Amino acid sequence: MGNIAFSCPHCDGHLTVDESGAGQGVECPLCKQPLIIPQQPIKQAASPAITERVEKPCKFCGEMILATAVKCKHCGEFLKKKPAPPPMPPSQTAPVQKPQHVETHLAQSIMVMLLCCLPFGLIATIYASQVSGKLQSGDYTGAIHASETANMWSWIGFAVGLIAIPLFFVMSF
Prior knowledge:
This protein is an alpha+beta fold. It folds into two domains: 3-66, no CATH class; 106-172. Helices cover 39% and strands 13% of the residues. Strand 1 (3-7) and strand 2 form a beta hairpin. Helix 2 packs antiparallel against helix 3 (118-137) and helix 3 (118-137) runs antiparallel to helix 4. The radius of gyration is 39 Å and the shape is rod-shaped.
């Protein structure tokens, strides 16, 4: 029995197999691509264009490969880039606009904390102190939320103080 010598159609690697494998599908040991072993050795015409092998260095490993190769038989890298994915469609959400000014409500919350209701005023002061930091870091949504929360707790503290302080004086006499 003889051997069949042929080239891989994917990487042009030279392969030799026993002729009993003719017609079978196998994986190329060089490029790992599927191929079918030919029935008999492929005869090439003796023309100057076919006998002349144009080679170039692999751009990944530097080894010499055929100029028409798709995958390097030495390092296994694909030589042609994969097509770029299609561009993503523009976002349907509206961009967040920078507010011109976000009120901190810090003075209001401190006055509520000192004059009306300490617990609710303290909560309002904590939220009011977060507004400037969030604006500087670019978190405009967070700054607006902190400002609205500080305002809410200030009004709650004011209302509780407005009710609790007179009630305290009435009950103490």
